Each structure stands twice: as C-alpha cells, then as structure tokens.
Amino acid sequence: MDKMQLHESIINNSQVTFARSGGKGGQNVNKVNTKVCLQLPLSVIEGITEEERARLRTKLSAIINSEDCLYINVDDERFQEMNRKIALSRIENRIIQALVIPKKRKPTKPTKASKERKLKLKKIRAEIKKNRGRILFN
Question: For residues 9 and 45, what is the distance between their CA atoms, to the nearest angstrom?
C-alpha cells in the first residue's frame, strides 16, 4: 500500500455532494448545504493491490453501497469546506485501518513459578475456609 498514491487517489476520484445539515447552526442550517456526502468507487482507488481491495470489501462492508462505492456522510461542522476535509480524512483513515493485518497471537503457557504461586494461594484459601467451621470442645 502506497499511502501517498492512496491519498492522491482519494482526493482526485471522490465524488462529493452537499445537502442540508441538521443540528446546531440556527437559520444557517435552513439556508446552506453544509452536509457532505462523499462517494469513492473501490475500483478507482490507486495504491492498493487486488487482495487489499478484496480485504476492503469485507472489512468495510457497512459503508459500501450497492454500486461498490465507499460512502460517508459528515455534518459535524457548520462549514462545508471543514466537513469536506473531515470526510476525506475519515475515509482515508478507515481504508488504512482496514488494510492493517493484525499479528497472530502466540499461545503461551503458565510458568512454573506462577503455577506454584497459584497452588500456594489455593492452600492458604483452603486453610482459611477450614478454620471457619465449628470448634469442638472435648
């Protein structure tokens, strides 16, 4: 994955539309289209291999629509340009995070000392519980 080529590809190939946004802003909300709807076709993303593209399809299936495009809406800010920048950075971060392959976990075994500590604590606990019983006087 080439991050610079990916970044340029996202900026050049994303289709941005604007809509009226809800939330804070007063009359401004009713007049100005500040919400950003960004679509990015998976087929035009450069800087990734076909295997990585397939991985994106599985990992980001929640934000991929029927036309095989990544889709994201942003209406966090009151300004269209700020929402556009946020949308571009979010989609880039989502792609980068989806392409990270987690390390395989190596199973470990408890050490001899930890086993001995566990047994010692069990014996102490058993002794405490044994001493809770009734005391018999002969």
Answer: 6
pTM, entire model? 0.72
Strand ranges, E, within 1-100: 15-19, 35-41, 69-74
- Using one digit for the tens of pLDDT, what is the confidence trace for 36-79? 999 999 989 888 889 999 999 999 999 999 899 999 999 888 88
107-127 pLDDT, tens per residue?
A: 999 999 999 999 999 999 999
Q: How far is CA 8 from CA 4, 21, 50, 70, 105, in A?
A: 6, 27, 18, 16, 35
Torsions phi, psi for 73 (to 5 deg)? -115, 140
Domain ranges of the chain: 3-99
For residue range 4-16, what is the model confidence (pLDDT) as tens digits?
898 899 999 999 9
Distance, in Å, from the CA atom of 127 to the CA atom of 13, rounded to the nearest integer, reads 71
Tokens at 93, concatenated: 């971060």
CATH 3.40.50.300 corresponds to the domain 3-99: no
Instruction: State phi, psi for 3 to the nearest 5 degrees.
Output: -65, -40
